[in-house]
Amino acid sequence: MANKGMTPIVKVISDWVKSFIMLFGIYIVLFGHLTPGGGFAGGVIIAMVYVLITLAHGKEEALRRMRMGVAAELDSVGALMFLIIALLGVSAGFGGRFFANYIHRLNPGKEFSLFSAGTIPLYNIAIALKVATSLFLVFILLVLLKVIHGPEGEA
Amino acid sequence: MLEFIGLLLLFMIVASIVAIETRDLLAAVISLTAVGFGVIIAFFYMRAPDVAVVPIVVEVLVLVILIRSTLRVGLKTFIGNRDLFGMIVTVAMLAVVFLAGIRVFSFFPTFGEPVITRIPDAPSRIYLENGLKDTGAANIVTAVLLDYRGYDTLGEATVLFTAVMGAIAVIRKKARKKPSEPEVPEWGE
After folding, report:
1. Most buried residue, B91, B115, B138, B184, by CB count within 10 Å?
2. Which domain holds residue B40?
3. Which residue of A has its CA nearest to B65?
């Protein structure tokens, strides 16, 4: 375990930096309706935190912090959250349309403030959850991948 | 202004030719990322930070993925003779796309001039005029992505979900089938 990953310099620096990267990703997600960015960009930045941990400490440490089952569940939760928020708009009291922005219509917040734009920040959070866990899963799958030259395989 | 874009395009073309022609996989990956960052600089130059933010993070992630997880496996480069028929088809297709592109570009408005000056009732005018009132989002790009064009984002999320599902299904730890079993799949357990 001690020899996994990169040198101690990289480990210490990545330990310092990773919280700030996470914070920046969350900021990009939450302020996506006010400043450039949004769910996709913020989600990729959050996924990069785990990529950084994988690179610096090895895959065991990253999988200890975010197990693959948990990541897969969060992925599905993000997708379901996105769909449920969109489906709620179909009900008659909320606008009667798929993707209707019912929160903004019923309770418009102050413009240019964090709690404004109705459902858009919620969509951003759902997409960020989805993208972050999806990309982490893809990365960790490709890291775990080994090409085994067996007796029968031409792989 | 246009000279800078042209210079950037030249750089991107050279980098992509290097990415295709080099024998070294690492050099190819880095040239590919150089092309991506050329696109990003072009986006920033055209004052589209919202579009540029996503490629930056995706480029970096893809670079890391390609270097860390693909090159390590030790994939070999394939060197073979080029098929003459395939080459002719490729050149013909490229010529058609090039000529069609020239025709399309003659319809474009001049550089830096928005499309609503030419087409008065374009949807972008409605988005710009009513976006803040309709959605309450100060960032008009997010308003379009998640409110006016929500279906596009739903499709994008579906594509990502399906891709990850496929990756998990293909790259799994245990084989479903034992090596001794016959090749013919048996349906219905």
Report:
1. B138
2. 1-75
3. A139
